[in-house]
Amino acid sequence: MMSLNKVTLEQVVKNQFNYKLGAYSGVFISLIILQLIAVLFSLNGVGMSGGGSEQISYSLHYYSGNLVFIFTMLWVFIVSIIITSKAYRNEDFSFVSNRLSSDLSNILFMIFISVIGTVTALLSTFLIKVILLFLPKFDMFYYSSISMNMSNFVFLGIVIAFCYILIGAAAGYFVGTLVRLSSLFKIMVPVVFVGYLIFGGMISEVSGLATVVQFFYLESSLITFVLKTTCTVMALFASSVAIFNRMEVRQ
Amino acid sequence: MILNTDGTKPIYVQIAEWLETEILNGNFLQDQKVYSQYQLAEIFNINPATAAKGLTLLVEDDVLYKKRGLGMFVTEAAQAIILTKRREHTLKRLVTELVSEAEQLNVGMDELLEMVRKESKQSKGE
Amino acid sequence: MKVVNCEGLVKKYGRSKALNDLSFQISENKITGLIGRNGAGKTTLLKIMAGFQKQTSGEIKVFNEHPYNSLFASANSILVDDQMAFPIALNLGEVLEAAASFYPKWDGRLARRLFDYFSFRNNQRHSELSKGMKSTFNIIVGLASRCSLTMFDEPTTGMDASVRKDFYRALLKDYIANPRTIIISSHHLEEMEDLLEDILLLKDGEKILHLTVSDLKEYAIGVKGNANALLEWLDDKEVLYKKEIGTSVIYAVIENVYSEKIRQDASKFGFELLPVSSNDICIYLTGKEKGGIDDVFK
Asked: Where is the HTH gntR-type domain (chain B) (predicted)?
């Protein structure tokens, strides 16, 4: 009787995650490029105001790190869609895998890139500040923060940013999986989405998307926010896993 | 030896006959171990199961005997058995074919015997 | 233990049945050839055994487990075909490393030596390789994985003759050294016939035959003789193939039942008996009813 290999889900997921770190490493290059572009655009400023009196005049230039953050969210959304594509999925099955392990290792990977994305987004905002510091045309800098305590702000910022980015990842993964279910969805999803954006405002006072965004954006308590995020992300991932579980591969 | 793959003779039969020839030529002596099915498989580039079938054939004909866990060995009577087999079956069959072919080509008995004698002289002379 | 246990397997794509009530078993450590025409269902069967696709109905068990989504089945089986793909970001050397991490029985030394023998370079990418080289690399992964169930679907696509020979030789040698259950589906039966122990012949998703190669060779016999006499004699026989040679001679292939009687009849009526190659037997058994290619030119 030949010896048969015994493997646990844990081992396989770990193996897959490790090899995906190498195999999917190309995504980080696009991340850096996107963020640099965002930094560049951010240097344009988001607003300006000015004023003066007889003795002095002043102008205020506003800068924000929001663009970097939005670009990062977009990037993670797209990467998530890409890793659910046929080609990427099939690669898992060249080795030891089942659908659950493929999903779990992908999810781990997305959490990983969300972390990396958040950290580099934060660093990019610092980069903006540093560049502005060295530009000769400014005399003074003011940082606006939610609370006066620097460390608190940074922490809150990172956690919140990470939550948004993770939602972006889960949403992308779900969309990517859904689309593979039937090619019908490839057309339906963008159409419904765009249609809702445009016409949603006509149907109800506030468009559907705005409600969704407000659900997160207006949340004032950090804990509730994290809870909402976690539930949403888990629901999206769970649905994706359930859908993929019934799909055939390598056809 | 190259295997004849045109289908006239099953592979396992060719393996068996090759082993018989080896025994006849003294390459395997009495009570000596012959190649295992795996060694035969490697030598002739065939599936071990096919080689095993050839070995089984020889065991049935009492040319080889099996020692459990050790392999196949040449029996005492192997040489005698093979010679008889060759004479009875192979040579006889060749004679039958020869005669029938000669008839088809209208070659008379005397002419045929003359051809046989000539061939024998030639091969002895070489 | 039966490595593969298949009962009443049906696979439908829309309305068409790729597999139709297929039942068979494959025992441990045999090399089985999966033979059949294009569209016979060979690839579908292999993909279901590998767990990539799911059957419509019927039972299939690989190592006593349902292969779909089974990590155990996946860890102990591998399907090598031309769709075997690897991440573009990894080069060949890295792919071999990844494979080693997944398969506990991976034979790194064999992989490395085959790799060098076929002149691959570490820094090449799988997607850059020619079709034949891709096939060659895939079988290196397949062989070195030492999976207890190793399946090949047309593994020699695009390979030149000498590489094909090397593949069969390498497969045989590693099989002798490390026995495992092997299933090869191929169009080139005549090339790999000696390598096989069993043949599973499929037609239109159904099992036609499942027997040893030696039994297959004795399954049918060719008879050649005078048209009138032969046609009459063929009346009560199972004829697999018939062809006219010249004006009055017919060549037919029949099932070799009561072979002794056939031999007697042949010498009585002056028919010539000819052996039929396994390849031809398979062709005749899986043929369409519409007549031969010659009819196109009539």
From this structure: 9-77
